Amino acid sequence: MSNMDMSEALRMLAADRGLTIDALLQVLVEALATAYKKRPNAADEVIVGVNPDNMDITFTAYDVDDDGNWINERDDTPKKDELGRIAAVTFRQVMGQRIREVERERKFEEYANREGDIVSGAVQKTDTRYTLLDLGRVERCCHKPNKFLAKLASRTLV
Fold first, then answer.
1. pLDDT per residue over 55-86, tens digit each?
2. Is pLDDT above 70 for 115?
3. 20, 48, 56, 145 - which has most CB atoms within 10 Å?
């Protein structure tokens, strides 16, 4: 995959998931660092740099001494085929996990400052333990001890 293809893929993923390019670049950096550490003979610590203009990726590796200091700074940027299968699987898992975390944070921030506000939604499902509400871009699971929601759900489904 060329750097321009990678840049376009990031833009498409950001648009599809409703995320910023900067958030996705941070996810990419974290996933690459985790994948790097799965390599044989990998350094103790690594700083991954991604140039957002041309998508050049650099790995600056460090060893850690007994006192916890980072020493022996060196460029340890692997060739595209050097990361290997384990690193590729790790990268894929970490990338997916981090994207879900960023999406969850974005949804939380959207509703965090609306505490006490009245929001409209639709009851999707109800049973003896919980009621599932659709609030638009998010769903909310309300447990049955909330008697108001239990009454609302029973009226809506009748």
1. 888 999 999 999 989 998 999 888 777 766 76
2. yes
3. 48
DSSP three-state, residue 99? helix
Measured CA to CA in angstroms, residue 127 lies from 15, 74, 131, 132, 143 at distances of 36, 59, 7, 9, 10
Q: What is the CATH number of the domain that holds 66?
A: 3.30.1480.10
Residues 89 and 142 in one domain: no
Domain of residue 131, residue span: 122-157
Q: Tell me the CA distances in angstroms from 135 to 3, 45, 117, one per residue in order.
A: 39, 43, 13
Using alpha carbons only, how large is the chain's radius of gyration in Å? 22
Alpha carbon distance 48, 35 (integer Å): 11
Angle at 115 between CA 148 and CA 111, to 5 degrees: 110
Nearest to 85 by CA among 35, 37, 48: 35
